[in-house]
Amino acid sequence: MPQPDPIAFIRDGHGWIGEGAVERGDFAGADAYAAARSWWDALRAQAMHEGRETGPVAFGSFPFDPASPAGAVLLIPSRVVRVDGAAPRLGSAPLPEAEVAEGSMSPEAYMTGVARIAAAIGRGELDKAVLARDVVIRPAAAVDPGTLLDGLLAAHPAASVFAVDGLLGASPETLVTVHDGTVTARVLAGTIAPGEGARLAASAKDQREHELAARSVLEALAPHVEGLEAEGPFLLDLPHLTHLATDVTGRIVDGSDVLALVEALHPTAAVAGTPTAAAMRWIRELEPADRGRYAGPVGWMDAAGNGEWAIALRAAQARPDGSWLAFAGAGIMADSDPAAELAETDLKLRPILEAFDAG
């Protein structure tokens, strides 16, 4: 595994590890998806012209907000290794000690923001918004990303563990997968500590929040997919959290590839809110730190139009000064309790902080 910037996407023991990005595309602004698709189509066509038996595999990461200076990136490694079963050990050095510092939004400011959004929902301005806050992870020395990935894979075997352009994490939420025309997605909204699933299932607030998230996915897929079926909500128990989850399946009918579906789906109500435009206005007003690629799509795709994309949650982004920036958010409804929503962000930060051993 090349250092210091590995490329990987593995879920349930299956996925890809890449070596050495030989092609890189950077895209920004409202037309980032269209530009990325054109770039990718040209490279696929070149591979076919050269008579390769199989086309390239690309790894990508897109920002949460199209206006983000982080921009989007697609990487094509010089070599990819398919993982089917246990992933190889990737790290070569132990993790250094790390401490956590408050980010750009204090806990008090976060609770004030929750109250403001809840009041706006009560006035009928929107139905839901997701408010996120950031923390800064400061390791005492340089971090071996392979070692960080090893820890995430061991602690979160059912999650999508990824590393793309310095963004590393273990997301529980699959945005969309495509395999031979079959589409699947997993929607998560509604969160509680492990062992409290019965209370989550009985929560009217969380059930409403989840219904909005699931509906946003079904409505986005409907123009492209037939035979849509939704199974849920059900309780999904993970090592650190329990979520309400819904699984969605269907068949592509309009020839869309996975990247077209990623564009159609993002941002879902699970990470932005609904209506989207109103939720984004509140996010931009209240969140002092740009989310970058947190809560944006991250995944891989192949030349046949297949691929798997997650939402970049439970993640951290490497920064030039050696620190890492991590975010966590909570879905705000009219009856949200600010202290409870703050506590939910603490729960959601635990997986990535524990991966750095920075509890």
Describe, in plain words, how this protein is organized in 3D.
By secondary structure, this protein is an alpha+beta fold. The protein has one domain (7-85, 99-355): Anthranilate synthase (4-Layer Sandwich). The chain is built from 8 helices and 17 strands. Strand 14 and strand 15 form a beta hairpin. Helix 2 packs across helix 8.
Task: List descriptors.
single chain, 359 residues, alpha+beta, Anthranilate synthase, 17-stranded antiparallel sheet
> Structural class, judged by helices and strands?
alpha+beta
Mean pLDDT: 93
Number of helices: 8
What is the CATH C-level name? Alpha Beta
User: How far apart lie the N and C ends?
Assistant: 27 Å
Summarize the structure.
By secondary structure, this protein is α+β, with helices and mostly antiparallel strands.
List the helices and strands and how they pair.
Elements (H helix, E strand, L loop, with lengths): L6 E5 L2 E14 L4 H18 L7 E5 L10 E13 L13 E5 L4 H16 L5 E12 L5 H11 L4 E5 L2 E5 L2 E6 L2 E11 L4 H5 L2 H18 L3 E13 L4 E11 L5 H8 L7 E2 L1 H11 L10 E6 L4 E5 L3 E4 L5 E9 L5 H18 L4
Antiparallel strand pairs: 1-2, 1-7, 2-4, 3-4, 3-14, 5-6, 6-13, 6-17, 7-8, 8-16, 9-10, 9-15, 10-12, 11-12, 14-15, 16-17
